[in-house]
Amino acid sequence: MLKKSSEFKEIQGPLLLIVMDGVGLSDKKEGNAVAAANAPTLRMLMDKYPHTTIKAHGVAVGLPGDEDMGNSEVGHNALGSGQIYSQGAKLVFEAIEKKTIFSGKTWLKLKDNCIKHNSTIHFIGLFSDGNVHSNIAHLKAMLEQAKAEGLKKARMHILLDGRDVGETSALEYVEPFEEYLDTLRCKSFDVEIASGGGRMNITMDRYEADWDMVRKGWEIHVLGKGRTFSSAKEAIETYRAETDVVDQFLPGFVITKDNKPVGTIEDNDSVIFYNFRGDRAIEISRAFEEKNFDKFDRVRVPNVIYAGMLEYDGDLHIPKNYLVSPPDIKNTLGENLSKKGIKQFAISETQKFGHVTYFWNGNNSAKFEGETYVEIPSDKIPFEQRPWMQCALITDKLLEALKSGEYKFLRMNFPNGDMVGHTGSFDAAVIGVESVDLCLARMLPVVDRLNGVAIITADHGNAEEMYETKKGIISIDRKTGKPVPKTSHTLNKVPFIIYDNRKDKGYTLKEGDFGLANVAATVVNLLGYVAPETWEESMIEEVYNG
Question: Which pTM was predicted?
């Protein structure tokens, strides 16, 4: 439980935490939508108010190494808990290295089911080494283990990336993988890619934004219903020639042999959804597991053993079976404030609503006492067509909450820098950043009138690098002569700004090597409390005890 601080005085008004999702900082100008944006409010904040840059990737957020891009899930875990936990890829790599994944009850259940029924083990997941949702290395480890343990047949249902890796890099993964499968194939082990499609076309919807994506994935993976090809390579090359979409939007495909799908999902099969990140894994998991499922007509529901790489929702227990336990995040900021009777407000639009709620509270979907959540429905059109997204409506509701005087701590997420950044459209990303800036200009004067304080930061970078580079040089598309769009997160630091116009602040910003996990302790100091010892340290220090 939080204790009152003898050093830091509680601010009189509200404390507002603003997360500008995907707005990182880079010295490079070309391809930098943040630098190119007409963003006078953000520039003013960086010029006039205490600020620093903080890490939002790699080991600072619990990922294996500093070459690993951060993401919104681990970023909000760190922001909301004030602690660094082993996350996603790191958890899985550790479980594979120690072999605990293969000695656990779920793997044994999946394996024994296939051996008992002489059936197929299926792997569905994002097919890249982007290390944000999944990693091909995990898939390879499971395939090798399946062969070693005597399973006879394995099928892969690959979701093409082009978002956390190069936007047209699919064949760079498919072709070497097919060569790898050749090394596994033998008379006793039949292994093939069975189906696939772009991650933003099939299967990987999140926050119930577009269940039709999941329906299309179900029909392709389970039913074998879709356009057919002889190989994944043929499918990708054909769609490339016929459409102008990048990998993440490629239509679904079914691989056939002798005019029959090579890998529909049937009764008594085992199925693993091998993404470790949960947001885009929950809906397809529900489709496999829910008896009274009503989101679309599944047509046929095979009786399978289904498992996720992780438990994607710890409160709703989705899925029932999982290979690696998620970090057990305790003693979060939200929980501590709730125990002190501090009312909290959380808001975003659908695309990032789960981040200021579920992920913020340590992968906990239940509210703490005194919390209020508001979700603004996201647009269902490509975000480059409406790059302002719902930031104005988010701001409207946030201002209402501020002015109500009901809440001491308010948190919000503007998704624009991330969701528009992922489209690869530089011009749209610029507008997305400008839209957020306009909203900042609306909120800050209200914070002043209420004698409050605002913290402005981000959960990871994205919009500041909109062009792919190789060895520091921007990659140029030979056909168009234009820079190759970058759609993934970055390894850049993010801003941390304290907007505080009170005369007697009583603190100053420390110098140091900080990350997202240092934000929570800073928040409780501003609220007049001492941070728990288990948290990363605060970024402010006392100037005087006024």
Answer: 0.77
